[in-house]
Design a protein that fits this description.
Blueprint: E1 6-11, E2 15-22, E3 36-43, H1 45-55, E4 60-66, H2 70-81, E5 84-91, E6 97-103, E7 109-114, H3 125-133, E8 135-140, H4 150-155, E9 159-166, H5 173-181, E10 184-188, H6 196-205, E11 210-214, E12 220-224, E13 227-231, H7 246-260, H8 265-279, H9 292-300
Parallel strand pairs: 1-4, 1-8, 2-6, 4-5, 8-9, 9-10, 10-11
Antiparallel strand pairs: 2-3, 6-7, 11-12, 12-13
């Protein structure tokens, strides 16, 4: 039985991503075979987030499922090597989650996600209660089973951060529980030219929210009861080669700075943006999330 006190428990998805890098600008359907570079990555939101926290020196636990298969064993091995607690890892009988990510030369990507049993599997509530109760922060992704742990985390008094990812509609019933139960909410503005209308709508549902929205190359937005602030993108002299995991890095950088270190919202946004921008310079890997020394270095430039 764990007696550890964790800085953060990441609740959510982990799996193996296959990133398919195209050598041409489009798929050529006139021929049977296209030549690509295909790279497997320990990824998905919980994979990037857990490894990101660990790289920043936070004591981290992961709560989620993998298959009883090679990929699941590999994920548990890597997490253990990086001192990410895996007592909360349970088995998905359908296997480890997989994603196929098409990576275009223009920088665009299209992701195809196979969450296996994440819509119907049940998490172990007793184990989850023990792990979450020892954490300062619970960082939730949005597999369906994770919503069952939201009331538990709220009852235990843990700060709840939820990343609802690429929102299309504010009234999406799948995401409603996560929005209502969150103390801090993250979403991608990829489907919206301006995240402000979504932020105001979410604040009507949950007025105490702190909301962070990644806007890609346009920067970042922060929403609170005091209104919406916009922050320009940060500049780092590194090329953008892969945006997978950037939103997770933004959340990790912000939450580590604000919740764990006690920095201001504005400074935490800046550090989150640095973390995300650095991730964009790492190609097809979650091995190289930003360290605290590098984050301090880029902030001080």
């Amino acid at each position: 039985m764990s007696t550890n006190i964790f800085d953060v428990v990441v609740v959510g998805n982990v799996g193996i991503d296959t990133n398919v890098f195209f050598q041409s600008s489009e798929i050529d359907f006139s021929v049977e075979a296209n030549f690509t570079e295909n790279i497997d990555v320990l990824g998905q939101a919980g994979g990037y987030a857990s490894r990101g926290y660990a790289r920043l020196g936070a004591s981290t636990a992961f709560l989620g499922c993998v298959g009883a298969d090679f990929s699941g064993d590999y994920i548990k091995k890597v997490f253990t090597q990086e001192r990410i607690n895996i007592e909360g890892v349970f088995v998905d009988p359908a296997g480890t989650s997989r994603s196929i990510n098409f990576m275009y030369r223009s920088g665009q990507r299209k992701n195809f996600y196979d969450g296996k049993s994440h819509m119907k599997i049940d998490p172990p509530l007793d184990v989850a209660s023990r792990i979450i109760s020892g954490a300062r922060l619970a960082h939730f992704n949005i597999p369906n089973w994770a919503r069952d742990l939201l009331p538990l985390a709220k009852q235990l008094g843990v700060i709840i951060a939820c990343d609802v990812q690429d929102v299309v509609e504010v009234e999406d019933p799948y995401r409603t529980d996560f929005v209502k139960m969150a103390d801090i909410l993250f979403f991608s503005a990829a489907n919206h030219p301006d995240p402000a209308p979504l932020m105001y709508a979410y604040l009507q549902k949950n007025p105490s929210l702190v909301i962070v929205s990644g806007m890609g190359e346009k920067g970042c937005a922060l929403g609170t009861s005091g209104g919406v602030q916009y922050f320009p993108p940060v500049s780092i002299d590194l090329p953008v080669v892969d945006t997978n995991g950037a939103g997770d890095a933004l959340a990790v950088g912000f939450l580590t700075s604000h919740v764990l270190d006690g920095r201001s919202l504005e400074e935490s946004i800046h550090r989150g943006q640095i973390s995300a921008r650095y991730k964009c310079a790492q190609r097809a890997t979650s091995n190289c999330m930003i360290t605290r020394d590098l984050l301090d270095h880029y902030q001080g430039r």
